[in-house]
Write a structure and sequence with these properties.
Chain lengths: 139, 767
């Protein structure tokens, strides 16, 4: 499978980040894994890496909802106003701890490609790749 | 008297005429006067004959509104000038009182003036005829049939005018002269003919013309006059006669004068009759008598009514007392004849009575209370209604008196009970109130006075209660109370009211209608309790519930992340372990136990999440759910467990009507009950589970009976995280969920347990 050029993990929980990194690396999903611990860091990363000429702009963002400083929802609102040249290519998947109606109602209006229940598993990753990137993990 | 000298025989007849007539010369000197005229004018013939008419009747100078003299003179002049009769409207023309010189007696007249013409057609005399209508007019006042009377009077005047006119001006008067002992009509003038227009009279014997008179008193009268020569006058004699020969007999009334006619020798040779028909007048008077009959009927009814009827005269004597009145006062009818009002009413002494009597003639006196005294001296309270009325032209006063001793006693009892109520109410710690039917304050108790900080209820009533109510609830409160009163409904409202310290407190006010014994509304009586603390506690509770909801939500949410991490880390760790370590004695069991703990943790969180969802879902979408389908689905889901336990399942729900419920929730209910029955089976018995249903009043009851473990305590059974048996897997959430779901739609769940036999769950859905 051709690896994705770059994946951005946005989560304040270091254990979660560790486990997700471990999983994605083991599955060989991306050339590069970037971690941001809140919305502000994620925005900074995007502004730095997604220029007109850059090649390491993330194509997949796995976004947590509850984070300090700037949470996932606030990040998405700010992201909508961000003038990025490669915005069309960026897929944002929201990670939640519950598929609770309260959370789902809030994210429906936002520019996200999907919602996935934590924790990430091989199957969930594979589904994301199939739906959004037309590729598949090797058996 | 030139005119009468032409008919000298008629002078006595003129004098005897029943009507009041005056014959005047053209210069208005009195030439002849009838006896009736003398009678009505209170005069003597010798004082009138030859006098100028207005000297004889100068008119009453004290009644300037009556222009009697002037109008009469004008009428005379008109008749003299035109030669035509003139009928005058009713006149007031008082006559001098012969007993009191200078005073006048009230008289009202209906005058008629006719010319008497000589052979040349010139007016030789005036015939002045009057009908005294003084009494008639007075009668009118209380008989209320003035119109009919006037008509009668006019008709009478017209009739007389006709007769006299004919007599003196055109033709002989309505006279008949019967000659000889057989009473042959020698003369029957046209006036007579007019009474009997179809009869040929002259030349016929009386009985030939009127055979119907044979058996009437007329014949004996005629015979009497003929034999004795004495004049005979009959008044209003009824005679059955035919107006036409062979016509039907009708009752005709005559006032007639029968006078003997004598020949030159003075022997009676015939009878002159002046027969004056008064049928109309008699009929009119009968009308009056019918009115009297009505009065008698009134008396008849008054005699039988329940309450005393008392008819009083102006002098405070009694014109009539009905039997009830006599009974109430203890007098006999004879004794009552000498009784006066002050004898029976200690309050209505003469002065008071006179005032009341005068007032009653003007207006109806509204019911009032007074005292009546019995013959034996006992005094009792009465309620009296009074009104004035005229009887036979005399003012009277009618009173209806009702003994109100009982009523008074009731009112006294009521006062006493109210006093007792107040004593009790004042001692009560809650606020108590009573309002009049118009919602104004009647009473508030001591606690209420203390609450608003007033000393007495008059102050409160004066300020009007809405001013104490919080402005936001003022209109609502007033409206709620008045509409409750209007509908006689219970009143219940929460509203704020200003306490003596200025703080608004929440009150729960409740009240209901209170009635007098007669069913009349006394007002509304109620209480109010200060529910400020209760309301605050309720608000706190609501907040706490919301907080709890949020807590469960947050907890379930926030606990998920770390447990997911633990699980993830456990997997990561497992992969890091070398095969040697993995095969070490306790490693795998420990790893499995960690995984088990993680699973249970996750399950608990899932249940918590479910509960949160359930509590948010107060109105789940309901539909008609078939129990059969749901039970079969659940059975299939639980089939592995059923087979494993070898349970015997008896399902008898085919006849159940559909249940109005959320399909998902009904499935949960059935699933929980059935899986519980399987899980909590008795270790020594093959599970036997029976699912059935029945309709019960307004419920549809689902029944799940098992032969499993027992000893349940209902209240604890349905609590959250309750498990009664430790040896079986379970979270303790199932029955709590079932209870919640069922109660959310107004249903209920109960359980019956018999030691050693098992349990039966009853789930009742509102039908």
């Amino acid at each position: 499978m051709q690896k994705l050029p770059s994946v951005l993990l946005v989560d304040d929980d270091s254990t979660t980040n560790f486990l997700h990194q471990l999983l994605l690396n083991r599955l060989g999903v991306a050339e590069q894994l970037v971690v941001a611990e809140n919305g502000v860091e994620a925005l900074a990363t995007l502004t730095q890496t997604c220029t007109a000429t850059s090649t390491n702009c993330p194509v997949l963002i796995l976004l947590d909802v509850n984070m300090p400083i700037m949470n996932g929802i606030e990040f998405l609102e700010a992201y909508q106003h961000l003038p990025l040249p490669q915005k069309q290519a960026i897929v944002i998947v929201m990670l939640t701890t519950s598929l609770n109606a309260r959370d789902l109602d809030r994210v429906q209006e936002l520019p996200i490609a999907g919602v996935v229940n934590k924790p990430l598993t091989r199957e969930k990753v594979n589904t994301i790749l199939q739906v959004h990137f037309q590729r598949e993990l090797p058996q | 008297m030139p005119a009468l000298s032409a008919l000298p025989a008629l002078l006595p007849l003129f004098n005897a005429l029943p009507g009041a007539h005056l014959l005047l010369s053209p210069d208005l000197l009195i030439e002849a006067v009838s006896d009736a005229y003398l009678a009505v004018t209170l005069t003597q013939r010798e004082n009138l004959l030859g006098r100028y008419v207005f000297d004889a009747f100068p008119g009453n100078p004290q009644t300037p509104e009556a222009h009697g003299v002037r109008t009469l003179l004008a009428s005379f002049r008109q008749v003299l000038a035109t030669g035509q009769p003139h009928e005058m409207p009713p006149q007031r023309c008082d006559v001098p009182d012969p007993d009191h010189p200078g005073q006048f007696v009230e008289r009202c007249w209906l005058p008629h003036n006719s010319p008497v013409l000589d052979a040349h057609g010139c007016v030789s005399q005036l015939l002045h005829t009057v009908v005294d209508i003084t009494a008639a007019l007075r009668d009118e006042a209380h008989l209320h049939d003035s119109h009919a009377r006037e008509q009668t009077a006019l008709a009478e005047a017209e009739h007389q005018r006709q007769q006299l006119h004919t007599l003196f001006a055109e033709a002989p008067a309505p006279i008949a002269i019967l000659a000889g002992p057989d009473f042959v009509f020698q003369l029957a003038n046209s006036a007579s003919q007019r009474i009997f227009p179809g009869q040929g009279l002259v030349g016929n014997a009386l009985l030939t013309a009127f055979p119907e008179l044979a058996d009437t008193p007329i014949l004996p009268i005629l015979n009497g006059v003929y034999s004795t020569g004495e004049t005979f006058v009959v008044q209003e004699m009824p005679v059955m006669m035919a107006r036409y020969a062979g016509g039907a007999l009708e009752e005709i009334h005559f006032t007639a004068t029968y006078q003997a006619r004598r020949d030159e020798q003075g022997a009676v040779d015939g009878v002159m009759i002046f027969a004056y028909e008064v049928t109309d007048q008699v009929k009119a008077r009968r009308g009056v008598e019918e009115n009297r009959e009505e009065l008698r009927r009134f008396q008849f009814m008054a005699d039988r009514v329940r309450d005393p009827f008392i008819l009083m005269r102006a002098d405070a004597t009694f014109a009539y007392l009905n039997p009830k009145a006599l009974e109430a006062w203890g007098y006999t009818a004879d004794e009552a004849l000498h009784l006066r009002v002050p004898d029976v009413d200690p309050i209505f002494q003469d002065d008071v009575f006179r005032q009341a009597f005068a007032r009653a003639q003007q207006e109806n006196i509204p019911p009032f209370e007074t005292l009546h005294k019995r013959k034996d001296g006992y005094i009792f309270p009465v309620e009296v209604s009074m009104g004035g009325l005229l009887l036979s032209g005399q003012p009277h006063m009618l009173a209806i008196a009702r003994d109100i001793t009982e009523q008074k006693r009731t009112i006294d009892a009521l006062r006493e009970s109210e006093a007792r109520f107040r004593t009790m109410a004042d001692a009560a710690p809650s606020l108590m109130w009573a309002v009049h039917p118009d919602a104004s304050v009647r009473y508030i108790n001591r606690a209420f006075l203390n609450f608003v900080g007033l000393d007495d209820e008059q102050q409160y009533a004066a300020l009007s209660w809405p001013s104490y109510v919080h402005p936001e609830e003022r209109d609502l409160t007033a409206h709620a109370l008045t509409s409750a009163i209007r509908n006689r409904a219970l009143y219940s409202l929460e509203h704020r009211m200003r306490r003596h310290d200025g703080e608004y407190r929440w009150l729960l006010a409740q009240g209901g209608p209170s009635y007098y014994p007669n069913g009349e509304l006394y007002g509304y009586v109620g209480s109010a309790i200060d529910i400020t603390e209760l309301k605050q506690a309720n608000e706190q509770l609501t907040r706490a519930n919301v907080d709890l909801d949020n807590f469960i939500y947050t907890a379930s949410h926030d606990l998920k992340a770390p447990i997911s991490n633990i699980e993830g880390l456990l997997h990561a760790l497992t992969q890091q372990l070398s095969p040697t370590i993995q095969q070490a004695a306790l490693v795998q069991p420990i790893l499995d136990m960690i995984q088990g703990a993680v699973d249970r943790f996750k399950q608990t969180i899932d249940h918590l999440t479910d509960i949160t969802k359930l509590q948010q879902e107060y109105t789940p979408t309901t539909e008609q759910v078939e129990l059969t389908t749901v039970v079969e689905d659940v059975r299939l889901d639980l089939l592995p467990l059923i087979e494993e336990t070898g349970a015997h399942l008896e399902i008898d729900v085919a006849d159940c009507p559909a249940i109005t419920f959320s399909a998902k929730n009904l499935r949960s209910v059935v699933y929980n009950l059935l899986s519980n029955a399987l899980k909590y089976r008795h270790p020594d018995r093959v599970p036997h589970i029976r699912i059935s249903c029945r309709c019960e009043a307004s419920w549809l009851v689902l029944r799940v009976q098992d032969n499993g473990l027992d000893g349940v305590q209902q209240t604890k059974l349905f609590g959250m995280f309750r498990r009664l048996h430790t040896h079986v897997e379970g979270s303790g959430i199932g029955l709590y969920m079932v209870k919640k779901m069922v109660e959310n739609v107004g249903g209920k769940i109960e359980v019956e347990s018999q030691i050693g036999l098992g349990s039966t769950f009853f789930v009742s859905f509102p039908a």
